[in-house]
Amino acid sequence: MNTHSDLMARRARLLGAKAPLFYDEPLHIVRGEGVWLYDAAGRPYLDVYNNVPLVGHSQPDVVAALARQAATLNVHTRYLHETILDYGERLVARLDPSLSMVLFVCTGSEAVDQALRIARLHTGGEGVICTNLTYHGNTTAVDEVSPLFYGGVPRSERVRAIPFPDSYRPLGGLAGEALADAYVAEVDRAIAGFAENGVGFAGMVLCPVFANEGLPDVPRGFMQGAVAHVRAAGGLFIADEVQAGFGRTGRMWGYELAGVVPDIVTMGKPMGNGHPLAAVVARADLIEEFRDRVMYFNTFGGNPVSCAVGNAVLDVLDRERLVDNAREVGSYVRAGLARLQQRHTMIGDIRGHGLWIGVELVRDRATKAPATEESNRAINLMKERGILMGRIGQFDNVLKMRPPLPFSRANADLLLATLDDVLGLL
Amino acid sequence: MNTHSDLMARRARLLGAKAPLFYDEPLHIVRGEGVWLYDAAGRPYLDVYNNVPLVGHSQPDVVAALARQAATLNVHTRYLHETILDYGERLVARLDPSLSMVLFVCTGSEAVDQALRIARLHTGGEGVICTNLTYHGNTTAVDEVSPLFYGGVPRSERVRAIPFPDSYRPLGGLAGEALADAYVAEVDRAIAGFAENGVGFAGMVLCPVFANEGLPDVPRGFMQGAVAHVRAAGGLFIADEVQAGFGRTGRMWGYELAGVVPDIVTMGKPMGNGHPLAAVVARADLIEEFRDRVMYFNTFGGNPVSCAVGNAVLDVLDRERLVDNAREVGSYVRAGLARLQQRHTMIGDIRGHGLWIGVELVRDRATKAPATEESNRAINLMKERGILMGRIGQFDNVLKMRPPLPFSRANADLLLATLDDVLGLL
């Protein structure tokens, strides 16, 4: 048997000492099933962290579809194949009718990169607005719109960051309509900044639930106002649904919650339940224009195996009513968290939608001083008790919960009882 | 049954009218096995085109490894897992000892994009040299080093293109050492151009066999000279092995043929036999520096399923001695092509290494006038006769042959006999 320290040493040599690992004592996971992960010693962990295995770890129907198609044919999209058409048509049927054409890729980073290319080509501008604490992926261009790891400040002339819309620590201490207007004014300021610098405007990319920003309650009216101002300035709105999409929020797409229809949607992570499948779905005129002016081809994107997997994921999502389950069990968890909040003053705020839940820990509810260290202890203590979660937000003090969607009320009860214990220890 | 025209109409609506398809009459492929593909009517086609299914279409051991690991666990790399270590160690053991650390990604485009990030971060410069007729992938940054589809002219200040090294249509009509020197002088000119424009120099990215340039015979000494001058100017050399790597040329890596050791290697396409698996392998100090300064994570890259697939591909490659087979059968094909050349004046040049073969068709051997239209007819006529190949090169007149590596002498005989017939019809 390999010990943890052997594995860690091999890992440092092969992948680099800074290759990221979770937890103070990393986990050695060897098996997954449904909402459960198992370590090398056979110990089960309730997975309240992983959003990629949307319909459950090692879901048998998805695995069967993967194996069946891989044993039959796996080629690229320059031959005709029905599965890509069946899947693509089924996928776009779930979006607004204006979003009717698809560009298949393999990862969320690729999806956002192509979305930026499409928007820049269409507008002739380069300038893109994002939020200060977002992360959209890791290609050179997508890294530019991901200032989360760079102190909130974009390092490219062609990107401007707005403060993310937040009701818990609101801009200027405002509330209600005035707060929404203040954030929309930041969008206007960014647009004006591009104009002053002679940078043409291409548009705005946002995660509709602001997942990496800590899942804030978005001031009502902000999204509509921001998108309207972007369009009035000739820009396009890209909704990055890599985290919000595929039903996690209790709706199929995050933009439905936000109440706006994007020009371009990017999707990835849960789309293939772990298989590298991602896509850009956009207005037909935008994709046609891109195809017309750019020789775009993706070797693996939209291959028959990926599309067979995508179809199987939608089958399970529908058959098990997992979008409804996300909404129902998510509400149940949030109600339970509200009860915990009465006993634990550290719970400053409970946020999110469906099974995408954030719990902000603070040292003082009045000052909202972030309980960053306590949050780290909390997730490590939860892990020791067999429950996996993460943390996020500008102060790394928001407990991040986004389990596979077949998460039951019984799973929720275990989560809540364990969190109750752990919060008592902090 | 769907007719071709039904599929074409659905495809145009869903993917765009310009989404690329092969052949004047596209193929509807439904099954693959070994070196054979089958269309919807059950007709077999000998696959002399597809380099991605390296160890054969639907290779049973690879499919079994994929299915087994997908049924067990598929998570990201922030938990410990042995398969990523087993595979990664086995992979880097096949490269020069100086190339010892790996960054797993999902596609060749992602690999080249990260390689550019690593080189730019290390050098502090942005300027990158590529050839005029190369294509390295499709992200925003990689598109910049892919002038093939933009008339050979990079559209970014931070990229400069050199004419690709060619012995068939040599620069200035030169030959031998003088020709190699002339191409190296183009590298010097590009480096000087960056300096004049105040663009810091980051390095050079080349496919070691210049696959997209048409697989030219590289003037001896060019690669050593070019790489030495790049390093002398403080730049790094990135070898893009997405097409050359994994044994196709009869050696494991294209850089072995080229006789230079890169600082960074990118790999993709055949690595997972169709599964989206790709990587950057580089000097440990470069990856450590990148990891240290950038929060890099790839959701799907290096997951247990991808690594199990990668291991299975190496198993088959070794067990079936496919690298040797590529060298042996490749030589056999080239010898057969040389015989055809005696009968068919249209064959201007026969090039390549192992089972990566280019045949340049010309209307006149003296003027070397490209037989572009004839090349298009040739690949369509070959397809009608049940053999799949493509074409490439600056005039689209180089027949492109790169079958799955279990390509036998019997397969080669069929290829040669059919090509003999088809060339007689042009």
Based on the model shown, name its key terms.
5-stranded antiparallel beta sheet; Aspartate Aminotransferase, domain 2; alpha/beta; homodimer; 16 strands; Aspartate Aminotransferase, domain 1; 7-stranded mixed beta sheet; about 425 residues; globular; 13 helices
The order of strands across the largest sheet of chain A is 4-10-9-8-7-5-6
Helix coverage percent of chain A: 40-55%
Q: Oligomeric form of this entry? A: homodimer
Mean pLDDT of chain A: 97
Question: Could you characterize the architecture of this molecule?
Answer:
The structure is a homodimer of 426-residue chains. In chain A, 40% of the residues lie in helices and 18% in strands. By secondary structure, chain A is an alpha/beta fold. The first copy, chain A, folds into two domains: 4-55 and 321-425, Aspartate Aminotransferase, domain 1; 61-319, Aspartate Aminotransferase, domain 2 (3-Layer(aba) Sandwich), CATH 3.40.640. In chain A, helix 2 (60-72) packs antiparallel against helix 10 (304-319), helix 6 (176-196) packs parallel to helix 7 (222-232) and helix 11 runs parallel beside helix 13. Chain A is globular and about 60 Å long. The relative contact order of chain A is 0.15. The interface between A and B is large, with 94 and 94 residues.
